C-alpha cells in the first residue's frame, strides 16, 4: 500500500518591509523620525506583533528598547554588542536564519524588516512585499529610503488618510509586490 501524500516542508515566511517614507524620500533625521504619526505607530504595532522583526543597530538605538511581543533581531558588526531583550546578528545570513527559525516557532507567516536605510538597501533583493506609509510632507532629513525599480514592483493597494489626532501629516498606506509574483 502506498503512503499518503505528505509534505514536511514548512512554508517559507514572507519577507516584508514596513517603513514610513516622506514624499521627498526622507525616513530619518538625527536618528529619529521627523514626524509624529500616531495612526501609523498603532498600525506598526498591529503589523509586527507576534513576529520576528529585523533592524539595524542604529534603528534599535533610535527606538531605545526592545519591541515587546516580537523577537527583536538587531544587525551589528560589533561582536561584543549585547542588549537585554534582543538577539544580535553579525551578518544578514545569520539574521535571516534566526528570523526564519523564530517565525517557524511562532507560526508567524512573515519576517518584518523595519529599517533603517542601510538594512533596507541590503535586504531589498530578498523582500517580497513592501508596506510603505507615504508621509505627505517634505521634512529635512539625513536618511532616505533606497530607490526601488518600478519594473520590479507593482503597486497592489493604496489607501489615503487625512491626519487624525496625533498625526502631523496626511498619509497613505501603499503595498507593493514583486512584479514577478502572481
Ligand atoms: N521611517 C521609518 O520607517 C524608519 C524605520 C527605521 C529607521 N528609520 C530611521 O533611519 C535611521 C537609521 O537608519 P540607518 O541607515 O542610519 O541605520 P540602520 O540601518 O538602522 O543601522 C545601521 C547599522 O546596522 C549594522 N549593519 C548594517 N549592515 C550590516 C551587516 N551587513 N552586518 C552586520 N551589521 C550591519 C551596523 O551596526 P554597527 O555600526 O553596530 O556595526 C550599522 O551601523 C534613523 O534616523 C531612524 O529613525 C526610519
Q: What's the structural blueprint in terms of helices and strands?
A:
Layout: E1 14-22, E2 26-28, H1 38-48, E3 52-56, H2 57-63, E4 71-75, E5 86-89, H3 92-106, E6 110-113, H4 117-123, E7 129-135, E8 143-144, E9 153-161, E10 171-178
Question: Describe it for me?
Answer:
- The protein has 182 residues and is of the alpha/beta class.
- Helix content is 22%, strand content 31%.
- The chain has helices at 38-48, 57-63, 92-106, 117-123, and strands at residues 14-22, 26-28, 52-56, 71-75, 86-89, 110-113, 129-135, 143-144, 153-161, 171-178.
- The strands form 2 sheets. It has an 8-stranded mixed sheet, with helices on both faces. Strands 2-8 form a two-stranded antiparallel sheet.
- Strand 3, helix 2 (57-63) and strand 4 form a beta-alpha-beta unit.
- Bound molecules: NADP nicotinamide-adenine-dinucleotide phosphate.
- Residues 19-20, 27-28, 31-33, 55-59, 62, 75-78, 90-92, 114-119, 122, 143 line the site of NADP nicotinamide-adenine-dinucleotide phosphate (NAP).
Features:
Dihydrofolate Reductase, subunit A; binds NADP nicotinamide-adenine-dinucleotide phosphate; two-stranded antiparallel sheet; eight-stranded mixed β-sheet; alpha/beta; 31% strand; 182 residues
Largest sheet: 8 strands, mixed
Q: What is the alpha-carbon Rg in Å?
A: 17 Å
Return the domain count.
1
Low-pLDDT runs: none
Shape: globular
Amino acid at each position: 500500500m502506498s503512503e499518503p501524500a505528505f509534505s514536511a516542508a514548512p512554508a517559507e515566511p514572507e519577507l516584508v518591509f514596513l517603513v514610513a517614507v516622506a514624499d521627498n524620500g526622507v525616513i530619518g533625521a538625527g536618528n529619529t523620525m521627523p514626524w509624529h504619526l500616531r495612526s501609523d505607530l498603532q498600525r506598526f504595532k498591529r503589523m509586527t506583533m507576534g513576529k520576528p522583526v529585523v533592524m539595524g543597530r542604529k534603528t534599535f538605538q533610535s527606538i531605545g528598547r526592545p519591541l515587546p511581543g516580537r523577537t527583536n533581531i538587531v544587525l551589528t558588526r560589533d561582536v561584543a554588542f549585547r542588549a537585554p531583550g534582543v538577539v544580535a546578528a553579525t551578518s544578514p545570513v545569520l539574521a535571516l536564519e534566526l528570523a526564519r527559525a523564530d517565525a517557524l516557532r511562532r507560526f508567524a507567516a512573515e519576517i518584518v524588516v523595519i529599517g533603517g536605510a542601510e538594512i533596507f538597501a541590503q535586504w531589498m533583493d530578498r523582500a517580497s512585499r513592501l508596506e510603505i506609509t507615504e508621509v505627505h510632507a517634505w521634512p529635512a532629513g539625513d536618511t532616505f529610503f533606497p530607490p526601488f525599480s518600478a519594473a520590479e514592483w507593482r503597486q497592489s493597494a493604496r489607501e489615503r488618510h487625512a491626519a487624525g489626532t496625533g498625526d502631523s501629516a496626511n498619509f497613505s498606506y501603499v503595498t507593493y509586490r514583486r512584479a514577478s509574483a502572481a
